[in-house]
Write a structure and sequence with these properties.
six-stranded antiparallel beta sheet; flat; alpha+beta; 10 helices
């Protein structure tokens, strides 16, 4: 069955003007145009519009939604399952807040005594804290988990991170990543493209696409970092956080150890961090020679593969 743009607007709640805009930007094209020039939509277009509305509800920008829906590996059933998990998480939090309200009313009426900590069940993680009070640091800077995969049934996890770089160039096998800049300026490389982000700007990093970033504003940047699904990112940061002493994780593990660490957490290490040559130039001759041998060994391994 085909629907006119007015009929789609009526059943979806999306204005005709917005549907026209989606068509013009390539986000949602109609199935065909009639002889009179009218747009007509069929079930595939309605399902795509539903996805657009879901992603908008989850806070995605239109450009990000277009990239997600345009990926060859996009699967609508998997996307719906992911949306359901996120919404279930929101519903669970709402129910928790309602329960806190009901218990507080009973407490004030003298029907039920509440402990002090029960007054705040369901509220957000406080500033400067993390979900489980772990206070994990990466390179001496905080990497606070604000929403855990345990909260979302594995659908997503959220971190507030401060630092000068996002580690070596890598990709995620099964996760999409989103970065929102709170302070500082970031140089971000996504595959062969390069971006310069200022506070208030964000970038979507699709799964299976190599990426790397660093702060270029002269002081540590602060970002909100979201992974969907949550995968093993919390475990990965806990493991990296163990090397918060004088010896950085890359020196402690070496190149082979870093590869194994990334592989164990559903990622692939594909290159050095941005500014790696400048970093090495500041190190002792012994460290420079060590990494020269490591990189030469890696090149020989790739050449024989």
């Amino acid at each position: 069955m085909a629907y006119t743009v007015k009929q789609v607007a009526a059943i979806s709640g999306v204005s005709v003007r917005t549907l026209h805009f989606y068509d013009e930007t390539g986000l949602l094209k109609p199935a065909y145009h009639g002889a009179n020039g009218y747009r007509f939509y069929e079930e595939p277009q309605l399902l795509k519009l539903q996805q657009i509305l879901f992603y908008r509800e989850l806070g995605f920008e239109l450009k990000q939604i277009k990239r997600v829906l345009g990926r060859r590996d996009f699967e609508i059933v998997a996307a719906l399952q992911s949306h359901r998990q996120v919404l279930e998480k929101k519903l669970a939090r709402t129910r928790s807040l309602i329960e806190t309200i009901d218990n507080t009313i009973k407490h004030l009426k003298g029907k039920k005594k509440m402990k002090s900590e029960e007054l705040f069940v369901g509220f957000s993680v406080t500033a400067g804290n993390d979900r489980f009070g772990e206070h994990i640091k990466l390179g001496g800077e905080p990497n606070d988990c604000k929403v855990s995969g345990k909260d979302t049934g594995g659908a997503m996890c959220v971190f507030e991170s401060t630092g000068n770089a996002g580690g070596p160039r890598h990709l995620h096998h099964e996760q999409d990543e989103w970065i929102y800049v709170m302070q500082g300026e970031l140089e971000v490389h996504v595959d062969k493209k390069q971006f310069h982000l200022h506070p208030g700007e964000s970038i979507f990093l699709p799964r299976k696409v190599p990426h790397v970033w660093r702060c270029v504003s002269g002081q540590p940047g602060k970002i909100i970092n979201i992974y969907q699904p949550a995968g093993k990112m919390e475990e990965f940061f806990r493991e990296v956080g163990k090397y918060n002493g004088p010896v950085p994780v890359h020196d402690a593990l070496g190149l082979d150890g870093l590869r194994r660490l990334f592989d164990a957490h559903e990622m692939r290490l594909v290159g050095p961090p941005l500014g790696w040559d400048e970093y090495l130039a500041r190190q002792s001759p012994e460290v420079q020679e060590h990494w020269k041998k490591q990189m030469e060994k890696a090149r020989q391994t790739r050449g024989s593969a």
